[in-house]
TrEMBL record:
It comes from candidate division LCP-89 bacterium B3_LCP. InterPro entries: AAA+_ATPase (IPR003593), AAA_22 (IPR049945), ExeA_AAA_ATPase_DNA-bind (IPR052026), P-loop_NTPase (IPR027417). Residues 42-192 form the AAA+ ATPase domain. PANTHER family: GENERAL SECRETION PATHWAY PROTEIN A-RELATED, PHOSPHORIBULOKINASE _ URIDINE KINASE FAMILY. It comes from the Bacteria. This is ATPase. One of its GO terms (molecular function) is ATP hydrolysis activity.
Length: 262
């Protein structure tokens, strides 16, 4: 509704992860570099954690765009599935036939596939998003997959992505063995206020805004207090502020207006 009022070509603060709007501050660039390094160096397990709405899935989407064709990628969003179900998804993503096979046959076939891929110079990647919801026995099963290796290297790189509870889960006693296998862990940190301001500016620009400065300093301070530098919350509050400004005929957003929508 406010598109014409402000002269936007599209909504600047949509919550869908559109790559056009990507704005990679230092922590995101580092996260991406860590993930790429872990995969290229065949570290076996790489873990990415961060608060709700901070941009973990966004980083993973950026990662998928950056891995070249030598990588075979399976990307799962965890929902309560057994190893056998998980293997079926992995088979589909790797273009293998899983029909009518038992769990042990699937594991054997996967191993054969990974060895062939490795011989051809390829690298297999498995990404499990929302991994904080995994039960410890499920994490243990995923660990079994990482056992597929040659004397020299891991044949499948597993990227676990989740909210900070994932760390608690990994720290639990029965998973000590699992934790020892994780060679790389990166925790995404919230945006600083400067980074948030760059983030907001960037989104307005990409959405086609060409007018005068829209958010005043006082408003930006309020947005930062409210969002604590979490992108999803920044988007939500900015969107509400734009609607309110449009409805009340304001072309600028100040502290007072911002407080009304918090
Ligand atoms: N670096 C970024 N550049 C641009 N937009 C971003 C960035 N990070 C996050 N966002 C925005 O914030 C929203 C939330 O990000 P995302 O869904 O990746 O968070 P998440 O950490 O995966 O959340 P959850 O814990 O709920 O899974 C995205 O839809 C996107 O609009
Ligand atoms: Mg996510």
């Amino acid at each position: 509704m406010y598109l014409d009022f402000f002269g936007f070509k599209e909504q600047p603060f949509n919550v869908t992860p559109d790559p056009k709007f990507l704005n990679f501050s230092e922590s995101y660039q580092d996260a991406l570099a860590y993930l790429i390094y872990g995969i290229r160096m065949r570290k076996g397990f790489v873990v990415l954690t961060g608060e709700i709405g901070i941009g973990k899935t966004t980083v993973i989407n950026a990662l998928l765009e950056r891995l070249d064709d030598s990588h075979r990628i399976s990307s799962l969003v965890h929902s309560n599935m057994s190893l056998k179900d998980m293997l079926r998804f992995i088979f589909r993503d790797y273009g293998l036939d899983a029909s009518g096979k038992s769990k042990s046959e699937l594991l054997l076939n996967l191993q054969e596939f990974l060895i062939r891929l490795d011989q051809k110079g390829g690298n297999a990647v498995l990404i499990v998003d929302e991994a904080q919801n995994l039960r410890s026995w499920q994490l243990e099963e995923i660990r079994l997959l990482s056992n597929i290796e040659t004397a020299k290297r891991k044949l499948i790189q597993i990227v676990l992505v989740g909210q900070p509870e994932l760390l608690h889960l990994m720290n639990s006693l029965e998973l000590k063995q699992f934790k020892q296998r994780v060679s790389l862990h990166f925790h995404l940190t919230t945006l600083t206020q400067d980074e948030m301001e760059t983030y907001v500016e960037h989104r307005l620009k990409v959405a086609g805004y060409q007018g005068k400065r829209l958010f005043e300093d006082g408003a930006l301070e309020e947005i930062y207090k409210f969002s604590e530098g979490i992108p999803r919350l920044i988007n939500a509050i900015c969107d509400r502020a734009l609607i309110k400004a449009c409805v009340s005929g304001h072309r600028k957003i100040d502290r007072k207006l911002l407080r009304k929508v918090m």
